[in-house]
Sequence to fold (775 residues):
Amino acid sequence: METAMQYLKEDPWKITEKTFDTKWLGKAEAIMCLGNGYLGMRSVTEEKYVGETRNLFVAGTFNKFDENEVTELPNVPDMIGMELLFDGERLDLSKGKYSNYSRVLNLRTGELTRSFQWKHGQINVELTFKRCVSFAQKHVFAQQVLVENLGKEVTLEIISGIDGQKTNSGSQHFTEGDKSLTENRFLQMMPKTTQSKIAFVLSTVHNLEKTEDCYDGTKKRIEMGRRKIYNRYWQTLAPNETLKLEKFSSVYTTIDKEHLGKTPQDLKKIALEELKEIRKNGYQELAKASAAAWDKEVWSVFPIKIKTENTLDQLAIHFAKYHLHVMTPAHDERMNIGAKGLSGEGYKGHTFWDTEIFMLPYFTFTHPEIAKKLVTYRYLGLAGAHKKATENGYQGAQFPWEAAWPEDGETTPVWGAADILTGLPTKIWSGFIEQHITSDVTYGIKQFIDVTNDQQFAWEKGYEVIFDTAIFWASRLEWSEENQRFEILDVVGPDEYKEHVDNNAFTNHTAHWNIQLAISLYEELKKNQPEQFAKLAEKLPLNEAYQEWQTKVAAIYLPQPNEAGIIPQDDTYLTKKEIDLTKYKNDSQVGTLFHEYNLEQVNEMQVSKQADVLLLLFLFENLFSKEEKRLNWDYYEPKTLHDSSLSLSTHAILAADLGEIALSYDLFQQAINIDMGENMLSSNEGIHAASLGGIWQMTVFGYGGVRCLDGQLRIEPHLPKAWEALEFGIMWHQQPLKIEVTQEGFTVTNHGEQAIEFIAFDKVYLLEEQIKITF
Ligand code: BGC
Fold:
């Protein structure tokens, strides 16, 4: 496939686009998106093009367009757009000729720069656009435009302001709201979401200068249109003259945690004061402070360094970390990470199991304070989880497959893509029966407690979720007279190409684990922490639940390896027909199987969308032998299409565990290219958040060999041939550890005050300062 993206070998910090093609607008918009966890902005160009997706999102501001639809993150009015007209001719790269084009996202500073020369008739100009969403001041973003006139005298007209004519693919989530001009300079607009009634305060201001502060020659006029407020500027540029335009904008909402209780009018004043200050200091200052915040909060925290000739691998790590921080609402535990982050309308901004199984480990092991917010979100979601359980006739906490505002409960849409045979929309069953999400949530919380040893969180929130989810599972089990065991029927497991299956191995094993965990916790707390235990027992019927867990747990059916050593993915998977998948496996697009079959037909084949049994073997590796892993790998890998971006990283890690390092590295290469790679259409709906968490996991869990197993730290690295050395860090029980791996061995250094224990190759080590181990 053709590609316009280029990764410069010498620079592991930059994503660069060298040609501009309106066929591929979505790629750069998504993979170069900017943000700070509060704001997420697709990197659309200032001038508009057909096919663009102009998105700006504010984390957590969900709205429901219509009663029959699910809630989604609304697309906020645009403040990035600008029209530039030279002698009346609109800047448009599909007209005339452009040269020296580049668009570069500097991951280190979070700044986006686009520059080119444009010639059209008499017009000959050089343009440089810079932009950043401040990582230091979360409400603010800024732009700088330099226009250098390389031709004859030209008049430049600029139209720029706030444009509220934006929708989510046609759904308008906002009322128009008041518009105002203050001090003849500051434009403000105050739309409100139609159903959730969140008031937004949007503010913007421009600074226009010729080369040396010469504002005088500019004529300007304020204009308003429907859902629009903007300035129109006119300026004449003599040959060789340069004009500098800076634009500063901000967003506040009435759900902002630090301003709860304030009226929109209060927020308007706050925004105005802030904008005055940043306008005075200028773009450069803002960009500098933002870059410094990136450095302090992200790049200097447990940096990962790979010694290799493949700069792309190092770039991939930076790319993943950059986006993980752009998309994560670290400022507010009432919000979580969307499956497409804040980079597109895909999945409506909703949170899935992607958080616990794929993104959360990065934060748990390197930014525990952010991880704590993410797990607290699930605690706050208990109300929604109770609602879902009750609606389905169960007890305890059943977490929603898709989640938005914590109390909302289930937000999965009911209808999806077209069925090619019936021509009707396909029903999305995951909101009804993809139930492993409940044990995934518990898994994330348990891992957080084990890795951080955050007892306060455990007591105040974590243990309650563990108990409440076990109560759900106990009520969910179904007794089979025929088999004399408890079963879990009619579910979707992680592999979404198999619907309405019975006894999905992943679901049954993780439900069993969840109940077993609650049993041990109950016993331990009751014995050792009676007072604290009593507090929890006041909230939940723990004694009754314990009786039930105990009677049920031993009779839960746990699919076991058959004679060939294969764990059946569900009751019927192994009896289904096998087809040749080579064509689909080799296709650069995912989901091409559906160009020939519908889901009903795929349901009857031994083909998996994503890791299912193999994910179980990775997450609970203590429960299975190496031999079982190998046999199941050989069986399931060829049947897995990796049509979900959640799949490749798991397979890469398992391959590394099995000693198949070359194969693992090949899967690593495929996985890092899900967004960064040459497929120019794959990121249109937004980047793949889970695959970015997967990049960190492949590096630290896969090649760094780190695992948290039954509460213990294990470090067993194995590097791919292409890597001479790998250096990374993790926080274990609040002690910062640095791990340096080479092909010959590894060193673990404890930069904390307290000694910690870890296991490597079946030996237990007590790490005080430093331990070196050779292979
Ligand atoms: C995958 C799910 C995932 C969801 C959101 C689906 O395509 O099959 O496992 O949670 O995407 O990323």
User: Anything to note?
Assistant: Residues 352-559 form a domain with the Glycosyltransferase fold (CATH 1.50.10.10).
